[in-house]
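Researcher: Can you fold this with 2-acetamido-2-deoxy-beta-D-glucopyranose in place?
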Amino acid sequence: MERLPLFIFSFTCLFFISKFSVAIDTISPNQTITGGQTLVSADEIFELGFFSPGTSNKRYLGIWFKSILPQTVVWVANRNNPLTNSSGVLAIGGDGNIVLLNQTETIIWSSNSSSVPKNPVAQLLDSGNFVLREGNSGINPESYPWQSFDYPFDTVLPGMKLGANLRSGQNWYLTSWKSEDDPSPGDYTYKLDYRGLPQIVLRKGSDVQFRSDPWDWAGSGIPELYRNSIINPIFAFNEEDVYYSFENINKSSISRFVVTHSGSIQHIAWSDTRLEWVVVITLPKDSCDDYDICGTYGTCNININDQVCKCLKGFTPKSPAHYDAHDWSGGCVPRSPRMCGSGEGFRNFKQMKFPDKSSFKKNMLSMDCEAACLNNCSCVAYAKSGILGCIFWYGDLLDIREYSEGGRELYIRMAASELGKCFCISSEFSINSQVTMMG
Ligand SMILES: *[C@@H]1O[C@H](CO)[C@@H](O)[C@H](O)[C@H]1NC(C)=O
Ligand SMILES: *[C@@H]1O[C@H](CO)[C@@H](O)[C@H](O)[C@H]1NC(C)=O
Ligand SMILES: *[C@@H]1O[C@H](CO)[C@@H](O)[C@H](O)[C@H]1NC(C)=O
Ligand SMILES: *[C@@H]1O[C@H](CO)[C@@H](O)[C@H](O)[C@H]1NC(C)=O
Ligand SMILES: *[C@@H]1O[C@H](CO)[C@@H](O)[C@H](O)[C@H]1NC(C)=O
Ligand SMILES: *[C@@H]1O[C@H](CO)[C@@H](O)[C@H](O)[C@H]1NC(C)=O
């Protein structure tokens, strides 16, 4: 079947074409997919072909779930370069790459791999991965010169990665569609930030909208998005790469992550009984998820009705008038000025979302986190991690929230007077008690 010559398509009746269209998951150099023809993965889970989204009359090459209606597209090849005419042709090009040609046989999309197999074939796998592989050998998952899973669009399927290959610099991240009817790249991206503890950041253009809980490998810190009974999160951070991935616990169930054109991240599962997609979780989920809503050293608590933001204990609004008027952007400053080396210490805060811009080194298990932070004047907070040892923050703390359950314990640097370590000037005490009464 893999070697089906082109002329068979031209000389067989429609019945045969439709029969082949459900049977073929692979194209070889002399075969093409055009018009309503499709590739279907071996177990008939995914289908690849041309589609027009919604009311659009533009044509795209995409992958969707074979037996789910309405059509749910999980990947688009020519997202930047639609066909204006339904006569696109998918083929293996003369250079061995997968190519998409328009009516006048101009290449409008190519897999564009610099290393192509000797006997190239393109195959749609049951995972939804569309791969370019050597036609003569068996399937060797490590050696696809090109695979659609390396070029995610708005959807993560089981086995796909969000993150980066640290050697090649290849980055796997999501981009929203422009609108429901327009799969050209939209404003939103969802990308793994691994400068500190790995966390996934939703941006609109270059503006950060939302930041997931950073993950330190500890079970309790699994980001909310991945914390449910449907999936096993998979996380890797090694010399080769850093990524988040997942698998469905029930391998025959269907679920996916998607960044929507309106700027949210959703985990969506297919319900066999309701025959529809069910949203498991949508993030950001409340105003406390808005990035940095409370300013530096401010903390967000959604269970406080009138004012979700307040300064962390030991801090005071930089501009009280603004903070009281719900303009929290100015943030908070230490109530008692910190003087490094003069008896400072730490106050602990429970059930917190770790602030942004964490810093850690691997294999610091035996380190005294408190002493290490105290001894460096630019260290403003630390946390202990059973798996990593210590996590430190240098520079102002931001994007903190308090959870009513879960969350992490955080130790924040305070002046000695904050910790009752000394009896300092009485004016400071009056400020303290005022703030305490207000709080
Ligand atoms: C493709 O077609 C050409 C010309 O008809 C033929 O020489 C070649 O063997 C075919 N290749 C495959 C892989 O079928
Ligand atoms: C595609 O374009 C060609 C040339 O412009 C035209 O002849 C043909 O009718 C078009 N086909 C469709 C389905 O629009
Ligand atoms: C095919 O693509 C080329 C390059 O984008 C374009 O100039 C040409 O008009 C296209 N042909 C059709 C029929 O759309
Ligand atoms: C293929 O890759 C080259 C080099 O990275 C790039 O210049 C070119 O635009 C790419 N072509 C396509 C069709 O993506
Ligand atoms: C797994 O999922 C399939 C398909 O959704 C369903 O038919 C089956 O009952 C599920 N199995 C278990 C153990 O839940
Ligand atoms: C404090 O920590 C920062 C960040 O790791 C580092 O750049 C700096 O050199 C440290 N300072 C001292 C005095 O160790």
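Model: Folded with 2-acetamido-2-deoxy-beta-D-glucopyranose in place. The pocket of 2-acetamido-2-deoxy-beta-D-glucopyranose (ligand 5) is lined by residues 250, 252-253, 272 (CB under 6 Å).
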